[in-house]
Amino acid sequence: MAAIVGHFSTLAEAQKLVRSELLAGVIQEVYEEGSLLPLLPVMSISSKSLLYNRESTLPSGAFFDIHEQIPWTADVDYAAQVEVALKRVARQDILDNFILDTYKDPNDYKAIVLSQLRKGVMRTIENKLIFGDIDNDAAEFDGMGKLFSADAATGDAFSTTSQQKDQGGSSSVMTMTDMRILIDRVKPRPDKLIVSRTFRNTLSATAFEKGIASTIPIGSIVYGKDEFGRRVDFFDGVPLLVSDYMVNVADNTAAEDDGNDSGITQVFAVRFGQVGDGGLCLLIGGNTGGPEFFMVKELEALEDYDAGGIRLTAYCALALGSTQAMARIHSVDEDGTITA
Q1: Where are the alpha helices (DSSP H) in the chain?
Q2: Architecture of domain 156-273+322-339
Q3: Closest alpha carbon to 340 in 188, 195, 128, 173
Q4: Of the residues 1, 15, 269, 276, which has the maximum number of CB atoms within 10 A of its CB?
Q5: How far apart are CA 331 and CA 139, in angstroms?
Q6: pLDDT in tens, 302-320
């Protein structure tokens, strides 16, 4: 028996005379936490790149007896000079005049385009702060994974010349000792431990339901609250920054794994600060920066189009002052066993 819809033969016919209400705007569907940009100190430069020197050989003193001649010495050296060049990240989209002039209710077409442009390009920068690689694309800047003296490799061990350790991949067991050494590698002390969400959950479970495979106390894993009352995880007093941008990586690399859920991750210990203070910071140039961060350019008319345009641009790069301001454990099984 057909549904009774009154005057109309079908419900579809009745619906031809009504219109749904469209809610203004676009509902957020992409949520990502752990942004680095709000945490990074900013250094503005008025050139295309920044050059700086790092200590290498420092002068040493000696002891001399009475009336003993004191020699003149000249033995101070600097490490290889570092240059960080600004890179341009941009995106431009067409603003069609037909849509601008006719699609006015209820959405502000231009405002929606600009909002999504900002969010999309910001996500690109956040990704490159970790995974940028000049070797793969000379137009981008090197991210955190490429700021070490050498690329990640099998057998990496913390030493006087290395700030990274190979944890061993899917068969590895993360230890509390490794985590403490990671913290000790950053001088004088890291501001954050940057981890994936899964690794944070594994560390948390170690302190609660899983337990540590030892009789040691678990007091090194503690929790506090930020200024908004949200939970903050600490390891040995260093807060964890849980970043959704810390995607899985291929074993013994710093590169993205192109969506392959390998279960391999990395853990960074970072000290933020100006380059001159030896910390990790964001270089910017031109009119990049401020509350909006991006330079926004509106183009009134595009040749051969009944349209204008809008362009977002930023000139930026990541700079690491001292090699001692960052350390990493790579090739970590993010949901593996954690022991003493």
Answers
A1: 11-14, 97-102, 109-131, 176-184, 197-207
A2: 2-Layer Sandwich (3.30)
A3: 173
A4: 269
A5: 27
A6: 888 899 999 999 999 999 9
